[in-house]
Amino acid sequence: MTRQAGAPTQAQREGRSRQQLASFARRIGALGYEALLLVAMAFVAGFVFLPFLSQDASRQTLTVPSPLARGLMFGALVAGAGIYYTWCWTGGRRTLPQKTWQLRLVDRRAAPPRAARALVRYAAFWIGPALALIGYGALHATGHGRNALAFCALNYCWAIVDPDRQFLHDRIAGTFVARDSSPAQGAGPAD
User: Fold this and answer.
1) pLDDT over threshold 60, residue 12
2) What is the DSSP letter of 165?
3) Pick the residue with more confidence: 68 or 124?
4) Which strand (E) or helix (H) includes residue 55?
5) CA of 70: how far to CAs of 49, 66, 84, 126, 139, in Å?
6) Residues 6+ positions from 39 with CB-CB distance below 8 Å
C-alpha cells in the first residue's frame, strides 16, 4: 500500500497522539475568540486611518474612502494580521485565545513551527475567504452573492473529511493544534 505525498506516516500520527491533539470544539472555541480580537483590531485600525483616507477638503467632513484607499486598508490589515500570527505561532509563543484555551501550534515533529511554515499556514487560511470573494463576484449579478459566504467555512469543514480532523490550512502547512501540555496557571475551558 502506498501513501499519498504529504500524508502523515504512522509514526507521525503516534507522535501527535502523544502530543494530545486538541478537540474540534476547543479549536472552534479558540477560533471564535480569535475572530473577536481580529474584528476589534480592524475597528481600531479603521478609526485610526479613516481621517487620513477619507477627507473631503471641500466639505470639511469624512466621506467613504475611495476603492483604492479601501484596498490599501484591507491590504494593511491582512499584512498586519499576518505579521502578528506569524510571530505568535513561532518560537513557542501563542495568541491570547490559544493561551486561554490551552492550545499550542506545532509542526509534525511536535516542535513550534518556523516562520516560513507559520506564514504558509496564514496564507492557506485565506483560501476560503478568497473563494468567497471570487464567488461573490461571480454570483452578485444573479442576486445570490451572499451565498458565496459559505466558502469561508471551507477551511474548517475540511476537518469533517480529513483523516486526522485537521483544518485545511493546518494540513497544507504541516501543522496541527495540540493541547498545551505545560502546567497552566488556572483551569481553562473544558472540552
Assistant:
1) no
2) -
3) 124
4) strand 55-56
5) 10, 6, 21, 18, 22
6) none
